[in-house]
From TrEMBL:
Protein name as catalogued: Fructose-1,6-bisphosphatase class 1
Enzyme Commission number(s) of this protein: 3.1.3.11
Domain called Fructose-1-6-bisphosphatase class I N-terminal: residue spans: 4-196
Residues involved in Mg(2+) 2 binding: D113, D116, E282
Location(s), subcellular: Cytoplasm
Domain of life per record: Bacteria
Pfam families xrefs: FBPase, FBPase_C
Natural source organism: Pollutimonas thiosulfatoxidans
InterPro entries (alphabetical): FBPase_C_dom (IPR044015), FBPase_class-1 (IPR000146), FBPase_N (IPR033391), FBPtase (IPR028343)
Length: 341
C-alpha cells in the first residue's frame, strides 16, 4: 500500500478542509525538517559529540545540555528565513526571537521546547521536541510583535505537535482536525503517515507520575494515587499499572497509543506551587493534541486550553489523558475544594 507523506497530508488538509493555510502548511514542513535534523544529531550520540552538559543555565535556572542548545539553534535557523513567522519563543531563550529584518516575515508565532526530557539524553532513553503555532494577533497593524502577543490561551493554537526520538523517530501533529502520526523513513528521508486518526481510549488502568514527589502532593492527588494503588479491592475496583519515563513526549506518546493518565501536578513545595511544566510550549501543545485525540487536559480543576497566560515561561500543573480518568481526578479536586469551603 502506498502511504502518504507529511507534505501530501498537509496539501490534502489545505484543499479538503481548509484546516491549514499555505503559510501554516509550509511552516509545519520546516519544523518537521528541523526535527529530522535534531533526530539525526540525537542518534549520533557520543559519536557526534552531542552528549553532556554545558556550563550555561537557561532562563529557568536549569543546566543546559549540549543538545538543548543545539536543538534550539537548529529550530531557529530553519525557521528564520522561511517567511512564515513573525517571531519565535523557546524554553531555552529568555525572551522572544524576532525574525530579522533581512528575511521575509509571516503571520504566525512559533513556540517550542526544543529538547524535552533532557535528563534522558545521556542515558539513551526517548526524548523529543514539542511545538505550538499561534496566529500573530496584530500582524495586520504592521507593528513589530512583542512578548504580549504570545500570551494567548491554548485554545487559540492553530497547530501543535511533537517529535519523539525513540526506537522510531515519529512526528505527531494536529492542525485542529484530529491527530495523525508520521514515522521517519530514514532511507527515504521522508515523514510517512502511519497513524491516521489517533484516539485515546476513554478508560484506563495505567497512570504516570513521579512517585518520589508523593510527600509534596496536594490531598486530591494523594487520594487519587492512593485509590489506584489500592487496586481491585479499593474504591476504583481495578488494578492499575504505572509507567514514568520522565520525558513528557514519551509519556504522552504512550498515552496516545494505548491510553493512560499523565500527571505532573502542582504541589505544596514553594517551587512546586505553580507546577513544573511550562504552559506555553509544553502543556498547551500537548493539551491540544490530547483533546483532539478525544482525551482531556486540566490543571486540577480547569481546562488547560482555557488558561489565560501571563508570562512566556509560566508553569502549570498538568493532568491529561484518558477522559474518564481525568474527569475523576477533577472531581477529587472539586471534592477537596468543597470540603475546604
Ligand atoms: O525528573 P522529573 O521531575 O520526573 O521530570 C520529568 C519531566 O521534566 C521534563 O523533562 C521537562 O522537560 P525539559 O527536559 O524540556 O526541561 C518533562 O519532559 C518531564 O515530564
Ligand atoms: Mg520539556
Ligand atoms: Mg526542554
Amino acid at each position: 500500500m502506498k502511504r502518504k507523506t507529511l507534505t501530501q497530508y498537509l496539501v490534502e488538509q489545505q484543499r479538503k478542509e481548509q484546516a491549514v493555510s499555505a503559510e501554516v502548511r509550509l511552516l509545519i514542513e520546516i519544523v518537521a525538517r528541523a526535527c529530522k535534523a535534531i533526530g539525526h544529531a540525537v542518534s549520533k550520540g557520543a559519536l557526534g559529540g552531542v552528549l553532556g552538559s554545558l556550563e550555561s543555565e537557561n532562563v529557568q535556572g536549569e543546566v543546559q545540555k549540549k543538545l538543548d542548545v543545539l536543538s534550539n539553534e537548529i529550530l531557529l535557523e530553519a525557521n528564520e528565513w522561511g517567511g512564515h513567522l513573525a517571531a519565535m519563543a523557546s524554553e531555552e531563550m529568555e525572551t522572544i526571537h524576532l525574525i530579522p529584518n533581512r528575511y521575509p516575515k509571516g503571520e504566525h508565532l512559533l513556540l517550542f521546547d526544543p529538547l524535552d526530557g533532557s535528563s534522558n539524553i545521556d542515558v539513551n532513553v526517548s526524548i523529543g521536541t514539542i511545538f505550538s503555532v499561534l496566529h500573530a494577533p496584530h500582524h495586520a497593524s504592521g507593528r513589530e510583535v512583542d512578548e504580549d502577543d504570545f500570551l494567548q490561551a491554548g485554545a487559540t493554537q492553530v497547530a501543535a505537535g511533537y517529535a519523539v526520538y525513540g526506537p522510531q523517530t515519529m512526528l505527531v501533529l494536529t492542525v485542529g482536525s484530529g491527530v495523525v502520526g508520521f514515522t521517519l523513513d530514514r532511507e527515504m528521508g521522508s515523514w510517512v503517515l502511519t497513524e491516521e486518526d489517533i484516539r485515546i481510549p476513554e478508560e484506563t488502568t495505567e497512570f504516570a507520575i513521579n512517585m518520589s514527589n508523593m510527600r509534596h502532593w496536594e490531598p486530591p492527588v494523594k487520594r487519587y494515587i492512593g485509590d489506584c494503588l489500592a487496586g481491585k479491592t479499593g474504591p476504583l475496583g481495578k488494578d492499575y499499572n504505572m509507567r514514568w519515563i520522565a520525558s513528557m513526549v514519551a509519556d504522552v506518546h504512550r498515552i496516545l497509543t494505548r491510553g493512560g493518565i499523565f500527571m505532573y501536578p502542582r504541589d505544596e513545595r514553594p517551587s512546586g506551587k505553580a507546577g513544573k511544566l511550562r504552559l506555553m510550549y509544553e502543556a498547551n501543545p500537548m493539551s491540544m493534541i490530547v483533546e483532539q485525540a478525544g482525551g482531556a487536559a486540566i490543571d486540577g480543576t480547569h481546562r488547560i486550553l482555557d488558561v489565560q497566560p501571563n508570562a512566556l515561561h509560566q508553569r502549570i500543573g498538568v493532568i491529561l489523558g484518558s477522559k474518564q480518568e481525568v474527569e475523576r481526578v477533577r472531581q477529587y479536586h472539586l471534592d477537596a475544594a468543597s470540603q475546604e469551603a
